[in-house]
Amino acid sequence: MIPTTKRVRRIVAVLAVPAILLPVAACGSDDGSGSSSSDGPVATVSGKPGEQPEITVDEDADVADETISRVLDEGDGAEVAEGDFVRVNVVGRTLQGDMELINTWKSTTGEELSPDEGPSPQVIVQAGAESALPATATEPLIGQTVGSRIQVEGGSVDMLGAAAQQGGIPEDDGVVWVFDIAGAVSVDPQAAAEGEQAPAEEGLPEVEAPAGEPATVTIPEGQEPPTELQEQVLIQGDGPEVTAGQALVVQYTGVTWESGEPFDSSWDRESASAFQIGTGQVVQGWEQGLVGKHVGDRVVLVIPPDLGYGEQEQGGIPANSTLVFVVDIVGAA
């Protein structure tokens, strides 16, 4: 459980996906090849990449039986491979119910975001894999390039997974996604920080991190938790500096200071985790502690309640808990 903010938990609730993989439908091209639908996309998309797209729907058209995708604009960046973590701006809406599912160009109150306000919140998906969206929805991103705008259409179940029923969207409705690919990175699911680990600084927890396993964190005996954010780079990586707005791919283990017991670890899921940093999508302790670090770093963060979950109990973590995370930064884009 990456320590996300309430805003991101609302997005994840809307775009929830089941643990079982959905069957992958064939993807059509802009000329209809590979798709059983002769009608092509139901939605028409206008606008330039980087700007909020305008979507109009042909109300008389039927939703295609299979997934249809088309490249609206081709970028000149790196090619997206299967399994890559991809940072996207995205608009999603139903085809018949006229329901907007997500729009990263807008705030949670529906106002357009200004680039002057800093990096805009974006969504991190894993191309062709179950992530924030079903694999069926993101498979058409494979082979496309960073900077491209891609339109993907299909039935509501294929495009949303279990969230279609949870959101009351009929099975015979469809969904259109418009993705602007802003960045992508390939990461080994078992990647970890490598190098000699520094001893813990005075007052900070001791960390043992066996290869491929959750870290063991030993809280200083008898010591009160700090009231301000504490951090230490245990292993210094030689990758690029992490900047606000990037997709960050990490391995991590989290424990509470009060018990020393782990409440979550990416290692238990046998895959790295990804999120956007510097846009308010994770708790402030991660925002403040990870921006400016480097890919390849192992960082220990001790996060007081006011920079974590505060007075709210969260997923079994008691209210007013001080959180301790060991974070390996294994990729960024």
TrEMBL record:
Residues 245-333 form the PPIase FKBP-type domain. Its EC number is 5.2.1.8. It catalyses: [protein]-peptidylproline (omega=180) = [protein]-peptidylproline (omega=0). It is an enzyme of class 5 (isomerase). Keywords: Isomerase, Rotamase, Signal. The keyword Secreted does not apply. One of its GO terms (molecular function) is peptidyl-prolyl cis-trans isomerase activity. Residues 28-40 have a biased composition (Low complexity). Belongs to the FKBP-type PPIase family. This is peptidylprolyl isomerase.
